[in-house]
Amino acid sequence: MSESSQAGVKRVDVACEGRAFQVWTRRMGENPRIKILLLHGGPGSTHTMYDCFNDYFPVEGFEYYFYDQLGSFCSDQPVDDDLWTIDRFVDEVEQVRSALGLAEGNFFLFGSSWGGMLALEYAFKHQHHLKGLIVSSAQASMRDYNRYANEVLAQSMDPKDLAEIRSLEAAEDFENPKYEELLAPFYTQFVLRMPKSEWPAAVTETMPRLNRHIYELMNGPSEFGMRGRLKDWDVKGDLHRIKVPTLVIGSTYNTMDPEQQKWMASEVQRGQYLHCPDGSHLAMWDDPEVFFSGLISFIREVDSAERRTT
Question: Domain containing 285 — which CATH number?
């Protein structure tokens, strides 16, 4: 079955500086009080990375939405480089929220990695629409991300392999098959902690669907130095502005510093921190029981608290 013919699919019109595009969404379940919009990573990735949510959310009776951001696999893929800015992505999420009928009394926003960054930026501008916010595997500063990647993660790698990675990066030889080969231990230690031969199909299918142009324009091609448009992104000083209940999810083996993730939860006004002790960047896949039990408990807790006050 194609993505467009699945039940619950709705293509949402989004206006971008006088231009009209469509983005793909799919509703799962129905719940008037709990509606969760899932923001995928990248930028330029796709919703299939979240297929594991289907193992947990339906039994809870949650209503949740898969969504491919503009430029991603199931949505329109314009080539205009002026579209790939944080402000434009935030405006897109707001248009999607409105089209799907998500509102303060029911709207939870979940984002992981780039999706977590986008969720923070959305909250800074539109938190009056939110019932709850979940930020997973994201930091609040790209400079801090680069520092952690180089001073902590890189130092855990084989020194000879790291030296060769640095050499290939200096030559900007990112298409060299050797580069991907050398990074394989990094991915299985910090991105998804299982042999690549055992990675779930939902994860392996996501990789070739990545819009590399958008990803590299925003992030850059290297795992050890964000050099794209996001390289100076830093919202640490703005976190205190977030008033809605917020869950920050971190993990021991993340590409993001778990200490900063814990700190982020203390900076927002009504924050909680969930730590996945066996998890990596994709803790929903390699530490799922901790990840989903904590996530579901947070959503239930926020909804119950609202019920008591209404």
Answer: 3.40.50.1820
